[in-house]
Design brief:
- It is a single chain.
- The protein is mostly beta strands.
- It has two helices and nine strands.
- About 10% of the residues lie in helices and about 30% in strands.
- It has an eight-stranded antiparallel beta barrel with strand order 1-2-3-4-5-6-7-8.
- The protein starts with about 45 loop residues before the first helix and ends in a 19-residue tail after the last strand.
Amino acid sequence: MSPIRPFCAMVLALSLGGAALAAEDPPASRSALPDRAAVDPDAPVDLQRFMGTWYVIGRVPNFIERGHVASVNQYELRDDHKVAITYRYRDGFGQPLQEVRARASVDADSGNHAWRTWFYRVVPTHSRVLEVAPDYSWALIGYPGREMAWIFARQPDMDKALYKELAERLRDEYGVNTDKLKRVPQHAEQVGKLGYEVPNVR
């Protein structure tokens, strides 16, 4: 399958309360719940710290990313507030790795929260970094209209309790319909588990 798909309606970033929760993740993935008071959603995003690899832990499935597994976003700061983005994924764990490249411009006046991303140099989309963990271990990404949202993490696994807490934030603080939120399989053994999205190819 060609990696050039109609990628114009998604944020790569750049990536529940009512959703079904998956089974426990491996003990190595466990992390303490963040202190809600310690997270300031209005604090400027440190672009240097935000760069690097982000695993897509959860998302509201959309026609662009639906069925992708092992989804990862890679960010690289090029010029002042210009970011190169590479999105990598598979349609199934036995399928070849595919990637899509994009570029983004970050609005400094928004505290680096507002991103404008171009696909194929001509098609812009908008997204927003809603929150970032104080240690930049996770991030919540939103989309205009609140019909799409993402949970990112620096590691491919996330503790179930932390995932639930972040999903509740998307619902309560940002009005996202988390009934539609699904976890993204990052390992083959997660396929078929409750709360995980079904791969395009099994």
